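Integrase p58-like C-terminal domain-containing protein structure dump, as promised
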Amino acid sequence: MFEVKARLPIKNTLNILNNPELWKYKVSTLVGLRKSFEETSKSSTKASQFEIGSKVLVLRPQLRKIVPVSKLLPRYLGPYTIQRRLSHNLYQVESESKDLKVFHASRLIKFFSRSTLAEGWRVVQIMRIRYCVN
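structure tokens r here:
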């Protein structure tokens, strides 16, 4: 533009087409980058799988609506028990009051009861270490 040549700080003097070593290096790094992108995309598109009879929590439907909702409401409802798997990653779940509902797997998370969480912890040993109690 206006017949002025661009003055760049570094001229591109490397000619990759004429240098086979640089070409091999470029191709090897591109293959590695392509594989890393494939791995990340596979992990993000994988849907959750739940077994029949397992307990799950369901994302509260009101949280994604435009209607104002109290922030103090629990984010998940449940626990529900999975009764069967339907097509298109849908699950039929049963509540404790025996109501049957259908939800997509993206709205479900695995439920861990407090008793199963407490089994994994050794509270007595932690108290002894922390407070030097015999």
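Residues 55-120 form a domain with the SH3 type barrels. fold (CATH 2.30.30).
lmk if u need the other ones
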